Amino acid sequence: MRKSGIKLAVAGFAALSLVVAACGGSSSSTSDTTAACETTTPVSLQLQWVTQAQFAGYFAAVDQGFYAAQCLDVTIVEGGVDIVPQQQLADGAVDFALSWVPKALASREAGANIVNIAQIYQRSGTLQVSFKDKNITTSADFAGKKIGNWGFGNEFEIFAALTKAGIDPATGVELVQQQFDMSGLLAGDIDAAEAMTYNEYAQVLETMNPATNALYTAEDLNVVSYETEGVGMLQDAIWANGDKLASDAAYKDTAVKFVAASIQGWAFCRDNAEACRDIVVAKGSTLGASHQLWQMNEVSKLIWPAPMGAGMIDSAAWDRTVTLAQGTKNLEGSTVLTAAPTEGAYTNDIVTAAYAILDGLGVDYKGEAFAPLTVTLNEGGN
Questions:
Q1: Is there a contact between 30 and 246 (Cβ–Cβ < 8 Å)?
Q2: What is the three-class DSSP state of 67?
Q3: CB within 10 Å: which end of the chain, N or C, has fewer?
Q4: Residue ranges per domain, the chain?
């Protein structure tokens, strides 16, 4: 793919004239592409967590030269327990950040001028996982049980489910601080553990069942999906600096190109799951190859199909997230948000402009024909 000197006028972006690929070059040759750019813009992206297939689209966009084709030199910054991505963005430490919507909106309410410019995950991947003998099949069954959660804002859907079920989180359940793994569940210390479809759930399925000397199976478990329960909140989105979007035309131009190349990376991973697994493993993931292929497959289910286009923010899903965040109380009786977000908390202008670039490249950003793989997990995820 070579695009050179093509200018696109995008509706709603009269002030922003885009050179689709001022730098030419192929999607697989970063060095040639970079050499053809008049200038290359350095960009930093803050992840929410460590290297894994949850972020495969961004790693693929680097590896396949999609960012370089937009004259961007992207550095991906790993996250960790003590890193708040949206705060890193607000503080000016990075150019863009990934964050779950309710967490980011809480930071925005506290004064961080950040804007959701691309809603990559269209569905929630949060689960509560238990063994069959606990008889937990819906959130109403949480009553009187030990319910694990990670904290750090990852517990909002649990509180929303408890609220919907009429269970007081302070008295109706025993909330247990959970590690970012499934050791508490496997040891019997937690009745139902928080898990992501693409990560911790698989950790159970790649563990040996001492009663059978074989791996645990889905038939050994009950799974409560917060998406199915109607309390799923929007998760991984790309956030930008609101002040810069409003005042810096070059930053806005960079945001459009960054979103376009990122979606191109996710489309590549949708169509090349094993290649993206290999990219993530090569980048230093601590989890094994079968686990990463599972993760890649499950993450794709949260993105594709995207009837309005990957990255487009669905106002109905946004409103549901906001309503839940305003109405869900924690142990202290406080809600995630005290009021609706102020105007400008999200925009579809950036992703709409990005689609013009992707149309020019022939990239399918809706994925209507997506079909997930059947992945076999190995012990330990290897």
A1: no
A2: coil
A3: C
A4: 7-122+235-381, 126-225
Structure tokens at 168: 């007081």
Phi, psi of 102 (to 5 degrees): -65, -35
Are the beta carbons of 126 and 148 closer than 8 angstroms?
A: no
Residue 3 has pLDDT above 80, yes or no: no
The amino acid at residue 331 is L
Distances (CA, A) of 208 to 28, 298, 376: 40, 22, 14
Give buried/exposed letters for 217-232 (b at 16+ CB in 10 A, else e). eeeebbbbbbbebebb
Q: Are 63 and 110 in contact (CB under 8 A)?
A: no
Question: Residue 92 burial (CB < 10 Å; 0-12/13-18/19+)?
Answer: exposed
Instruction: Tell which phi-psi region holds residue 144, choosing left (phi > 0), alpha (psi between -120 and 50) or beta.
Output: left
User: What's domain 7-122+235-381's superfamily in CATH?
Assistant: Periplasmic binding protein-like II (3.40.190.10)
For domain 126-225, give the CATH number: 3.40.190.10
Give yes or no on whether 7-122+235-381 and 126-225 have one common fold: yes
Residue 163's alpha-carbon distances to 71, 158, 169, 171, 352, in angstroms, are 48, 9, 8, 12, 36
Helix H or strand E segment including 193: strand 192-196
Preceding amide of 305 cis, omega within 30: yes
* Helix boundaries (H) for the chain: 30-36, 56-63, 85-90, 101-109, 156-164, 183-187, 200-205, 242-247, 249-271, 273-282, 289-303, 315-327, 349-361
Contacts of 213 (CB under 8 A, 6+ apart): none
Q: Which residues contact 117 (CB under 8 A, 6 or more apart)?
A: 237, 238, 239, 240, 245, 255, 259, 346, 347, 350, 351
Q: Cα angle at 50 between 48 and 53, to 5 degrees?
A: 90
